[in-house]
Amino acid sequence: MKEFDKDQLFGQYVVFAIEKQLCALSIKEVVEIIRIQPITEVVNDRDYINGVINLRGSIIPVVQLRMRYKLPIVPFNKKTRIIIIRNEDEGIGLIVDEVLMVTHIEDEQLEPPLEMFNTIEKDCFKGFAKVNDQLVGILNLQKVLYPEEVKEG
């Protein structure tokens, strides 16, 4: 496994929930957070891509993170959000159950990915941080969005 690089991980993070797992993305990766809106289904080979939305004239693919991690699908509610991220000059929406906070994660709060934890694949995390006595997984967007392209043979 690659050496755990704490220096690249501390800073401001958007913390959100998927099922009972708390996850975070660097504020640098997040463009905006919007309420759920009509999603147009599209045929594609990745079943976790829910469809596309029209965001101020831009067509944005939307990833349902519950589908990505094979978690039970629940109806959207007033807390459901779409986190718009920028990945290699393309906007992508991530559907999450709830956005909880923006927080600062210090170097001493960080730990490398754990071998065993509850619901989501270990490789999808850069590391973990303890925030308000809860474990938060810092997502590795490349491995979340393109799992088949980063598996090592």
From TrEMBL:
<dbReference type="InterPro" id="IPR039315">
    <property type="entry name" value="CheW"/>
</dbReference>
<dbReference type="InterPro" id="IPR002545">
    <property type="entry name" value="CheW-lke_dom"/>
</dbReference>
<dbReference type="GO" id="GO:0005829">
    <property type="term" value="C:cytosol"/>
</dbReference>
<dbReference type="GO" id="GO:0007165">
    <property type="term" value="P:signal transduction"/>
</dbReference>
<feature type="domain" description="CheW-like">
    <location>
        <begin position="10"/>
        <end position="150"/>
    </location>
</feature>
<dbReference type="GO" id="GO:0006935">
    <property type="term" value="P:chemotaxis"/>
</dbReference>
<dbReference type="Pfam" id="PF01584">
    <property type="entry name" value="CheW"/>
</dbReference>
<dbReference type="InterPro" id="IPR036061">
    <property type="entry name" value="CheW-like_dom_sf"/>
</dbReference>
<protein>
    <submittedName>
        <fullName>Chemotaxis protein CheW</fullName>
    </submittedName>
</protein>
